[in-house]
Known about the structure:
By secondary structure, this protein is an all-beta fold. The protein is about 0% helix and about 40% strand. It has no helices and 18 strands. A hairpin with a 6-residue loop joins strand 3 (about 30-35) and strand 4. It starts with a strand and ends in a 16-residue tail after the last strand. Mean pLDDT is about 85; it is low at about 205-210.
Amino acid sequence: APQICMVTVDLETGKNLIIWEKKSEAPVAEYNIYRESTVACQYDVIGNLPKDALSVFIDSVADPTKQAWIYKITAIDEEGNESGIDLCKPHKTIWLITTTKTGTNDIQLEWYPYYGFEYGTYYIYRSESKTNFTELPIYSMASSTTAYTDNEANPGNKLYYYLVAVQKPELCSPTGTSKKADSGPYSQSMSNLEDNRFLTGIHENELKTGSLLVYPNPLSDQTTLRFHNPENHLFRLKVMDLT
């Protein structure tokens, strides 16, 4: 049974990347790639690659910014026999969200941890663009904690982008007849790209008529605002970006 070497978010496409190494001595003809469905511990086939193809698969459907995703792979021989999916250890991507602290405007990062291989450190990266990330992280921390406050960015009207990464002890080296120049080896599993725009979280405010409730918060593409208005006063809602 084949094993996943790493899953990560591909910075070029913004999609999840599944990487494995062809170490099986069995007569493998092709590989099936699975992603956990809407039911826990149940998996759907999302792709199939022949044995000679590069052992990297891009999940073009799953959105890394919405949640963490779990993957497995299996191997199929020339007679159509498939290895058991339970023999493959699942790998789960890092899912990062950001909010802004009330009062200080410090940027708060929280994430769901990577699952699939052992690691002891998280690496935090920050950039003012989506692509120009420095080689060195701005901060490193033990993997026993999954939150970090960036109180050195001083955002003001600046837009910052963040990544969280973990280092694999051994490199992942995919193989195949169609190997490209940018196809590894891979050393880090990256989270989704997140920024500090206020649209990812709304602070609590007080109106003259009572408190304003916002849920869900942080939000993705929609949210609900609820406040006390027994006299049916007319209100105007303004939505603004950092510019």
